[in-house]
Amino acid sequence: MAFTALAAGVSGLQAFSDSVGVIADNITNVNTVGYKETRSRFSTLVTETSSKSSYSPGGVKAASESLISRQGLLQPTSSATDVAVDGAGFFVVKKAADGEADGEFQFTRAGAFSKDDEGFYKNTAGLYLMGWPLDSTGDIVGNPDDINSLVPINIDQLNGIGEATSEVSIRANFQSTTPINPAAAGYTVGDISADITAGTQLISPDFVTNVEIFDSQGAPHTLVLSAIKTGANTWAYEITFDEATELDPADHTDGLIASGELIFNPDGSIDLESIDDAEITTMNDAAGNPVSLPGGALTFNYADGTTSSTDVSDGAIVFDFGTDGAADGFSQFESISTKISSSVDGAAFGNVIGISIEEAGEVSALFSNGLTKSIFKLPVATFPNPDGLARRQGNAYGVSDLSGEFALQQAGFGGSGTIASNALELSTVDLANEFSELIKVQRAFSASTRIITTSDEILEELTRI
């Protein structure tokens, strides 16, 4: 019996020593961002006996339990790249930005990220923040459910970039009392563009306005939209490039990139499609094929570089002339002909001066010329049992059999939390509770030593018999 009691005391020493280590880890990480406290849990070791008249002591064993799912308090900070998950989920991080060495995807709540010398964002543990890349329309590139579609966040590569115009929306009014243009009877497509290029006004347009667009390298160009009245409520228009030599002359004579006809209803609204479908308001693309409006997709081809020192990608622009039967785009009223407003995407961006992160996880770059561009979106990884995650170096976690498989969610959806920028999640350690636990464990450890000394005295007495 003394031997078994001695073994029970030794098991207590081992269990409570492990518990002291757990408490020490909690206390030393009281200021670690995103740290989740760990608790020691004890269970009995029982030696089965077949007799009720005797008892064989077993002892105790310790097991640690990480309270990873517990939410810590959010503390505001002054850094835009300090982020926290408000709710369930984890940031996705990687130990290496190149995606090769140490390529395991890990998960963390430690969101104190800062930019390194190469422009990547990593936290204090050196783990790189991963996100979905966004295209020019703000949509996620690739499969959002595939973790391999994530890339390291880096905004320095955006310095001085340009983005081609893809959408143009125009709101303008054609004066309804404008007389039919005298040249309308002999008008053929291209007459106005030829006049603009040559600088001679053989056909004087009844309406002219300019819209600035951008090519694939961010260089600005001017589109000239000219129109003449050809009949009652009917206008012919042409869209001309400002520099005809920049376009392929085989496809765009005199810089003409679009033409067509605009028809208006008696109430002044635009008639994009007449009631009997006999007439459809059209624009012509680069090949001369009619495209229905609004949303007409216009394509135009740049020269191959022989007439310019720069070779850029061919253009593709969707024009929006308004809603059929409405006056929210082009209209025809008695007021003077004028362009009311226009909306054009694309730009020549300056140097990156900052970054902002929205609640939905959208990462936007701030440029020196005042423009912003959404470039990444942060996923939030959720688990069926986050408390079962395997601990990793640097206050991060890895997938385990107990945690279940992760799911990449957009912030605020699928049970995931939202992203809080300019904030950090504090450690969940309660110092008062840890010190109380430390006292209890120390007393239990001392009591276990008394079991060993008492068992030793009993064995000593037995050896003297």
UniProtKB/TrEMBL annotation:
Q: Which UniProt keywords apply?
A: Bacterial flagellum, Cell projection, Cilium, Flagellum
Q: What is its main location?
A: other
The residue ranges of the Flagellar hook protein FlgE/F/G-like D1 domain are 84-171
Q: Where is the Flagellar basal-body/hook protein C-terminal domain?
A: 421-464
GO BP: any one term: bacterial-type flagellum-dependent swarming motility
| Subcellular localization | Bacterial flagellum basal body
**Where would I find the Flagellar hook protein FlgE D2 domain in this sequence?**
207-346
Which residue range or ranges hold the Flagellar basal body rod protein N-terminal domain? 8-36
Can you cite an annotated GO cellular component? cytosol
**Annotated SUPFAM superfamilies:** Flagellar hook protein flgE (SSF117143)
| Metal-binding recorded as keyword | no
Gene3D superfamilies per the UniProt record, alphabetical: Flagellar hook protein FlgE (2.60.98.20)
Which family is annotated? Belongs to the flagella basal body rod proteins family.
Alphabetized PANTHER family for the sequence: FLAGELLAR HOOK PROTEIN FLGE (PTHR30435:SF1), FLAGELLAR PROTEIN (PTHR30435)
As for what it does, the entry says: A flexible structure which links the flagellar filament to the drive apparatus in the basal body.
Q: What is this protein called?
A: Flagellar hook protein FlgE
Q: Which gene encodes it?
A: flgE
